[in-house]
Task: structure prediction
Amino acid sequence: MAEAAGLRVHVYTSPHLVQFRERVRLAGSLVTEGELTGLLERVERRNEGKPITQFEATTAAALLAFSEVPADLCLVEVGLGGRFDATNVIDRPALSVITPVAHDHCEFLGNTIPEIAFEKAGVIKAGVPTVSAAQDSLARDVMEQVAWHAGAPLEIAGRDFFIESQGGEIEFRDGRGVLRLPGPVLPGAHQVANAGVAVAAARLLGFSQAPIAQGLQNAVWPARLQRITEGPLWDLVKAGGAQLWLDGAHNPHAIAAIVPTLNRLRAESGRPLHIVLGLLASKDAPKVLENLRGLQPFRLIVTDFSAPSAAKADSLAASAQGAGLAVETARSLTAAVEMALRTVEPAPIIVVCGSLYLAGELLRMAPPAWPA
Result:
């Protein structure tokens, strides 16, 4: 939306999917390997061997790059939590945005929704407008309290602004009026809610309707219900007439978000649904599997993959069996897809999900992950 409004935009996101440099976009273009190496070397020299995490060093390098290349707007995604996150060094941003709070990274952020919401609310700054997605009532209460103490105007989806899907379009309503906009190009009912938050933020930044509409139609975000149509796995799949989809859903909340869209895909196509799942060992496997039940009927294949913190397929299979789910195991992503194709049913829809590391493994076989 900002670029459609004619702005030069810096972006910092994490994690990357295929190349580490995906995390830093300078005025519309990905930082080069050489530029990023030079920035990190400068950070290391200035740090003088003191303790520093990879994310802290990368954040410092990104902010250093942003300070030296002219731009009109900088979008900085929090890495973990908010309150103590390395990105939370900007005293007065133009705007803060908070997406839905759910149970994730509990070992760092707390085990209850209010505890996690308090950490997320750390990005709320004194006097700075904040936009929030619709929240659990417990999370909303925390955010309202933090915003009140900070004197920060707070707009929450479902209270201060509203987004509604109407066919292929969406209607956005807030205190400033009504916008009728094209539906987001990113697939999935959950992307309508995400679009609402983005539109609310764009309105606070002063964008007009035209760039907001163009941004909704031009957005690119790999591994978000992405149809894979190239690479060796696609070559395997297309020979049998199947479909291959990828989503980076890696926690219970994200799995629940994609379930309605996958059910619609299955219903519209008349094809069986095969889920290839890989998770990190730190994730709540029982809750992920519970949320997958919304897909019944489906075939579940759990797989090993190359991330060092990946849960073993045998462990995931045991969790699935304990939840009463039929499950098969594979030793690699390729083997899992091959297994999914061995069926007497109509050619299936195969959906790979459960980890951004697993998503990156697939995308390395089907570049490019991001526009350069």
User: Anything to note?
Assistant: The mean pLDDT is 93.
